[in-house]
Amino acid sequence: MDFKFIALLILIGSFMGMTVAQASCDPETQYEEEGQCCLMCKPGTSMSTKDCKNPRCQSCPDNHYQDKYTTENKCLLQPYCDRNKNFEDPFPKSKTQKSICECKVGFHCSSKDCITCVEHTVCQPGYGAKVIGNKSQDTECEKCPDGTFNNNTSWDAHCRKWTECETGYHVEEKGTHTTDNTCGLPRRGHIIVISIISVMAVITVVILVLLYRGCIKQRTKRYFKPLHPEEKPTCTETTLNMPLTPEENEDDPSHELSSEGFTEKGNQVMQERGKEEIVSRQESQLESQFESQEDSQSMDPFYKPVQACTSAVES
Ligand SMILES: *[C@@H]1O[C@H](CO)[C@@H](O)[C@H](O)[C@H]1NC(C)=O
Ligand SMILES: *[C@@H]1O[C@H](CO)[C@@H](O)[C@H](O)[C@H]1NC(C)=O
Ligand SMILES: *[C@@H]1O[C@H](CO)[C@@H](O)[C@H](O)[C@H]1NC(C)=O
């Protein structure tokens, strides 16, 4: 038992002695040689000449790296990133870190080992990226949910929400899985524009009618004022298109007498008056007025044209 105990103590003691000796050297940056702690070269360099306290280190050449403190006299070659396999070739390459060959944008590793890179899945119109692909993962497409759309054929476009028309505007054409909502002019605006146009149209029509009527009145005045200053309106309408001339009066058989002379006519009138006198004098005042009118008209040289006019109205 005693021997075993002593042996254990010696073992523990020797371990402790070893740890004390090792603790004096930094395992990351130093190495031990002949009981001494010696310096290693920095990352990004290699050791060209060994010297415990003052080693010679040289920088790694291009495309090489050293990522740790080292006693090696050579750097490590960087992995080759093959562009033909759709890898991105980083440049300049680090001398202190191993390059990781990554897939170009739009590509992802074909497998866990990433031997080659393959293109992302492209989502067709009506579909969008549920998960946008990256260097290690493919794009996942989904059919655009209702209320969203995507018109692009791409691996990096999500479905987007339909545009919400601003207040006052209305959805002119509802969106689909591939098209956005289109917003129309505000309805109120439509109404305002339409009402302004119709009010203007009405005003224009009214003005035109007034102008037209004013024109006709002026024309009728021009025709009849010099002929019959006291003309009654009953005649004006029909005589508008038939100016009264002696020739026209001759055409009318009921007034053939007129061309013979006024005295004849006058006699006729007198005869008629004689008849009237026989009829009781208690006729209406209107009649007497009529008589006096007849009297004055019979003296008026332009009386016949008026008769022609009234007869024209009757016929
Ligand atoms: C790729 O995308 C996935 C999920 O979106 C993510 O977990 C992963 O970290 C990404 N990888 C890279 C290299 O960006
Ligand atoms: C489609 O692509 C164009 C340009 O590539 C972009 O401007 C547009 O926003 C995209 N549309 C959608 C719905 O992502
Ligand atoms: C969007 O869709 C229309 C037809 O719906 C097409 O003419 C246009 O080119 C598309 N735009 C894109 C960016 O794909």
Alpha-carbon Rg, integer: 61 Å
Give the ordered list of helices and strands: HEEEEEEEEEEEEEEEEHHHHHHH
What distance lies between the first and last C-alpha atoms, to the nearest angstrom? 165 Å
Uncertain runs are: 235-240, 246-294, 303-315
Task: Give, in spatial order, the strands making up the sheet with the most strands.
Answer: 1-2
Secondary structure class reads alpha+beta
CATH architectural label of the domain at 30-104: Ribbon
Strand content: 15-25%
Largest sheet: 2 strands, antiparallel
Judging from the principal axes of the Cα atoms, what is the shape?
rod-shaped
Helical stretch count? 8
Describe this protein's structure.
- It contains 8 helices and 16 strands.
- It has 315 residues and is α+β, with helices and mostly antiparallel strands.
- The protein has a domain at 30-104: Tumor Necrosis Factor Receptor, subunit A, domain 2.
- The chain has a two-stranded antiparallel sheet with strand order 1-2. It has a two-stranded antiparallel sheet with strand order 3-4.
- Helix 3 packs across helix 8 and helix 6 runs antiparallel to helix 7.
- The longest helix is centred in the middle third of the chain and has 38 residues, at 187-224.
- Keywords: Disulfide bond, Membrane, Signal, Transmembrane, Transmembrane helix.
- Residues 143-183 form the TNFR-Cys domain.
- One of its GO terms (cellular component) is external side of plasma membrane.
- The chain crosses the membrane at residues 191-212.
Architecture blueprint of SSEs:
Elements: H1 2-23, E1 30-33, E2 36-39, E3 45-49, E4 56-59, E5 64-65, E6 76-77, E7 87-88, E8 102-103, E9 107-109, E10 117-119, E11 127-131, E12 140-143, E13 148-149, E14 160-161, E15 170-173, E16 182-184, H2 187-224, H3 233-239, H4 246-251, H5 256-260, H6 262-278, H7 285-299, H8 303-314
Antiparallel strand pairs: 1-2, 3-4, 5-6, 7-8, 9-10, 11-12, 13-14, 15-16
